[in-house]
Design goal:
Layout: H1 2-23, E1 43-53, E2 60-76, E3 79-89, E4 97-106, E5 110-115, E6 118-124, E7 132-134, E8 156-168, E9 171-185, E10 190-199, E11 203-214, E12 226-240
Antiparallel strand pairs: 1-2, 1-12, 2-3, 3-4, 4-5, 5-6, 7-8, 8-9, 9-10, 10-11, 11-12
């Protein structure tokens, strides 16, 4: 009888020790960097629907494909900067035509994408629901580093639905993050609504832009008559190079 009691006691102690070890197991920290993979050879192909409205021309509607590929990497000031080659074609039967090059860099704190020569802080790490930052912090569009009331150049980016499922036009991802880059909807002056979606292990999978300037002179005030603007939807259709 005593032997059985000792055996049971040893078994309980062993199980407790194993459970303790498991509870102390170091798990990889989720920072948000996994939503924006970067390395030479990666590529993404998007379907683009774009409408442009000008003050002197009628609305122009464009449908085309956009390819972004990490063509090269450079070590600049101790940090790796990736060269993003952007190409465009009318459809899958057409040849790709080079548009321009952007660049991107990523560290423990943020993802910075330079559109031409204008850098934007696209993501700020670690990501969490409700986290906000100034997307224009590194360019002169945003003025001072801090976002302050009355600063028209400050774009408060906000992370939402971190790690949640996203369903868009013809796409669905179980683990994604939605970045609200602006949500201004002034019925008198302008509408500026911009959102981007990143999927874990893939990167940017969806982007939507509606930036409209309304007529504010004379009898057209408040009628939301668009003087100029852009409406864009960018949906991923292929990616690779992982």
């Amino acid at each position: 009888m005593l032997g059985n009691v000792r055996s049971k006691a040893l078994l309980i102690l062993s199980l407790a020790w194993i459970a303790g070890c498991q509870s102390r197991e170091v798990r990889p920290k989720i920072t948000g960097s996994e939503y924006a993979p970067l390395k030479k050879g990666l590529f993404w192909v998007y379907d683009i629907i774009e409408s442009s409205i000008g003050s002197e021309v009628a609305q122009t509607n464009l449908v085309y494909e956009l390819k972004i590929e990490v063509a090269d990497s450079l070590l600049l000031s101790g940090q790796i900067t990736y060269v993003l080659l952007r190409s465009k074609r009318d459809n899958s039967s057409s040849d790709w035509q080079v548009l321009d090059t952007w660049s991107a860099r990523k560290d423990d704190f943020r993802l910075v994408v330079s559109e031409g020569n204008v850098p934007y802080v696209s993501l700020a790490f670690p990501l969490s629901n409700g986290k906000r930052w100034n997307g224009n912090e590194l360019n002169n569009l945003g003025g001072p580093d801090r976002c302050t009331d009355g600063n028209p150049g400050c774009d408060y980016y906000e992370a939402t639905q971190v790690g949640k499922r996203f369903e868009g036009p013809g796409i669905a991802y179980d683990d994604a993050v939605v970045i609200i880059e602006n949500n201004e909807d002034d019925p008198i002056v302008r509408k500026d609504v911009r959102n981007s979606v990143y999927a874990k292990g893939i990167g940017l999978v969806y982007r939507e832009r509606t930036v409209l300037e309304y007529c504010t002179i004379g009898t057209c005030i408040g009628k939301q008559i668009v003087e100029r603007g852009v409406i864009l939807k960018q949906t991923i259709k292929a990616n690779g190079g992982l």
